[in-house]
Specification:
- By secondary structure, the protein is α/β, with parallel strands linked by helices.
- 26% of the residues lie in helices and 24% in strands.
- It has 5 helices and 11 strands; from the N terminus they run E-H-E-H-E-E-E-E-H-E-E-H-E-E-H-E.
- The chain has a 5-stranded parallel sheet, sandwiched between helices. Strands 9-10-8-11 form a 4-stranded antiparallel sheet. A two-stranded antiparallel ribbon has the order 5-6.
- Strand 2 (38-41), helix 2 (44-52) and strand 3 (55-56) form a beta-alpha-beta unit.
- Belongs to the ribose 5-phosphate isomerase family.
Length: 195
């Protein structure tokens, strides 16, 4: 990926940086260019990156010039699955507070339709007390299986940076799904924070 030449115009900009490895690569290359940059970071991986680079922890107090973030899978019409790393709500807040949102992806993320390559399900951040009712409603209305993401190194579910749980919805990968409407329908289920 040759990105250095494409971002020279961002000198002295305020930027958000996502959790994905592609955004690490992008920001690392910008840092190597010795530009004066103020990065807003969120999530555990990015905090580690921040200590090694020039990032700061996240409290949004101004509009960012641009946010860089990766994607788990993306279609030609820009429908995408994001959040496989579990940092959904904070990524959404930082992205919303930027003038431009740049998705960084390599060829492995390109798909004809959602679910073609990404087999871990659509990540959905939910309020803990509603995790079972959200799971049941998704399965009843849209089919598939919504699984509570369980932690590997501790007992119980994965807990996000905001204290929420994650559901991974294993849906039938169907090219005819209207993902814009699905996004609206999922967000209307009480207890769904972000997906």
């Amino acid at each position: 990926m040759n990105i250095g030449q494409h971002y020279f115009y961002l000198k002295h900009a305020r930027r958000g940086k996502g959790e994905a490895s592609c955004s690490d690569d992008c920001c690392g290359r910008v840092v190597e260019g010795r530009l004066f940059i103020f990065f807003i970071s969120w999530g555990g991986t990015t905090v580690v990156y921040a200590v090694k680079r020039i990032c700061t922890q996240c409290f949004i107090t101004f509009i960012l010039d641009v946010t860089f973030d990766g994607v788990d899978e993306m279609t030609p019409d820009f429908n995408s699955i994001k959040g496989g790393g579990g940092c959904l709500l904070q990524e959404k807040i930082v992205g919303y507070n930027a003038k431009s949102f740049v998705v960084i992806a390599d060829e492995s993320k390109r798909a004809s339709y959602l679910g073609e390559k990404w087999k871990r399900g659509l990540p959905i951040e939910v309020v803990p007390m509603a995790s079972t009712t959200v799971k049941n409603e998704i399965e009843r209305r849209f089919g598939g299986v919504a699984k509570l993401r369980m932690a590997v190194s501790k007992m119980g579910p994965v807990v996000t940076d905001n204290g929420n749980f994650l559901l991974d919805w294993q849906f039938d990968a169907d090219p005819s799904i209207n993902w814009r409407q699905m996004d609206i329908d999922l967000h209307l289920i009480p207890g769904t924070e972000i997906c």
